[in-house]
Each structure stands twice: as C-alpha cells, then as structure tokens.
Amino acid sequence: MRLVSFTDQSGQASYGTVEGSEVLDAGSVLRSRWPDLRAVVAAGAVAELAGLGPRRPLADVRLLPPIPEPGKILCIGLNYLSHIAETGRERPSHPSIFTRYPASLVGHGTPLVRPKASQAFDYEGELAVIIGKGGRHIPAAEAFDHVLGYTCVNEGSIRDFQIHTPQFWPGKSFEASGAIGPWIVTADAIDDITRAELTTRVDGAVVQRAWLDDLAIGIPEMIAYISTVITLSPGDVIATGTPGGVGKFRKPQLYLVPGMQVEVEITGIGTLKNGVVDE
C-alpha cells in the first residue's frame, strides 16, 4: 500500500491510501477512532485502510508529511560510502545520529524555504525508514519486523550553520528546509530495499545516484543501535543518510536558489518533488 496524509480543498486534514491517480480518503471514515495516520500506525491498524474511503483525484489534495508530528525524526550522517569518500572522512564504526523536528519538513509539492540567514542551502536525497512496531534493544536480525515502510526525504542542509560548532543540529533544523514523502510504501510491497536506487535531480539534472546497498551501516544495524539507546515508537522516522554528489562538494558548488526544482526518486517508492523559495 501507499499511505498518505493530506489536506483536501477545504483545508480538512485527512489520511488514506493512493491507488493510481486517486486518493482513497480513509480518514473520513475512521477519523473518530484514529485522528491521523500516526494514530493508525500506533494502533496496528494500517491493514484497515486498504480500499477504504471515498475516492478523489490525487491532483486535488495537498500532500503533507506522511506521518504528521512524528515522535522522533532521527537522521544518520556520513552513511554512504560515496559521500564518505567525497568528504575525506573515514568509514564510521557506529552511526552518526542527529535529530530534526517536524517543523523542519514539508510534504511533496510544498516549496522548500531558503532561510534569509544563509545562501548555503544544500540538497540531500535520502531513504527514510518508518517504524511500524516499537521496541527497545531490537536485534539486527529482527529489525525489519519493526519496519512499516519507506519514503523519500530531501534532508536540506544549511551548510554554514552546520559547521558553526561540532554539533551541527542548527544546519539541519531550519523551518521548512527539508521535505518528506510523497507517501509511505509499506514494506510488504518491496522485495529488497537494498536493491533500490536513489536519484536526486536539480532542475532535471542528476546530481546524486546510488544503490541503497552503498550504505556503510545498514538499516538493521541502525535500528539495533538506536533502540539500544532509546525505545523506538510506531511512526518514528529514520533518515538513513545521503550519497555522494551533494552541492557543497561539487566543483563548482551547487546550492539551491529560489525557482529551482528538486526531485528525490527511489525505485519502488516514488518521487518527492519540491520547489525552492526565499524566506
């Protein structure tokens, strides 16, 4: 299934599934029980969305981040071998983890905002893992049992703020600087996520391309490590890192400016598209 959160033309927030070019508005039927998709996931009730709800054209709704207000957005830095190589760093033995907050991410089709405080606005195409079943001390061998599905992320980075101190949270947390979506593809619809290919385009030109098996630390190991530290909960988001080709390390550098269009495509999942505007 493809799971979405959206607002309709009246501004009413809802959720449901996507079939072809249509949205099935399951939230209009289930909202009194589960107010949003995060609550559906927490209840273990995703299967109830299949085929449920009135249909409307996908073009008539505004897509939101698939999980509204996730409890945790955990991001992994320096996790593709190609990106590690372009930065001149060594391969990590443990995941480099930082957090983002919901206000820093918009949905598919909503513009990314270049902040007035900086012009060093970079793109980072990524795969995100959505937790379906929570847990603590999850063994790597059981990690995929806890995955609801996958989506695309543009983990926009404000590079000068990122290097102000060794703690680079500021450069990763500007409001509306990143995007997630367009939907969650449930794990049962993907045979092997490591065989998928990630491609990022800026104004139609390919700037990043990598197979997901280029990860230095794999998805099971990420989940095992994170859950050693903190309990993972249904709806939590893990952004798994970006491959080589980011704007900072290109020659000449390529930073996002208003009017550009950025696409993050992952085979088997879809394409996340966002324009760029100034704050």
Task: Please tell me about this protein's structure.
This is DUF2437 domain-containing protein. Keywords: Metal-binding. GO terms for molecular function: isomerase activity; metal ion binding. It is a single chain. With 279 residues, the protein is mostly beta strands. The protein has two domains: 2-63, no CATH class; 73-278, Fumarylacetoacetate hydrolase, domain 2. It contains five helices and 19 strands. The strands form three sheets. Strands 1, 2, 3, 4, 5, 6, 7, 8, 11, 12, 14 and 17 form a twelve-stranded mixed beta sheet that branches. The protein has a five-stranded mixed beta sheet with strand order 9-19-18-15-16, with no helix packed on it. Strands 10-13 form a two-stranded antiparallel ribbon. The model has no long low-confidence stretch (mean pLDDT 95).
Topology:
Layout: E1 2-7, E2 13-19, E3 22-24, H1 27-30, H2 37-42, E4 55-57, E5 62-63, E6 73-77, H3 81-87, E7 96-100, E8 105-106, E9 112-114, E10 121-122, E11 125-131, E12 147-154, E13 157-158, H4 159-162, E14 178-186, E15 197-202, E16 205-211, H5 219-229, E17 237-239, E18 261-266, E19 270-278
**Over all CA atoms, what is the radius of gyration?**
18 Å
Instruction: Let me know the CATH homologous superfamily of the largest domain.
Output: Fumarylacetoacetase-like, C-terminal domain
Low-confidence stretches: none
Instruction: Give the name of the CATH architecture of the largest domain.
Output: Alpha-Beta Complex
GO molecular function, one term: metal ion binding
Domain Rv2993c-like N-terminal: 1-66
InterPro entries: FAH, Fumarylacetoacetase-like_C, Fumarylacetoacetase_C_sf, Rv2993c-like_N
Pfam family, one: Rv2993c-like_N
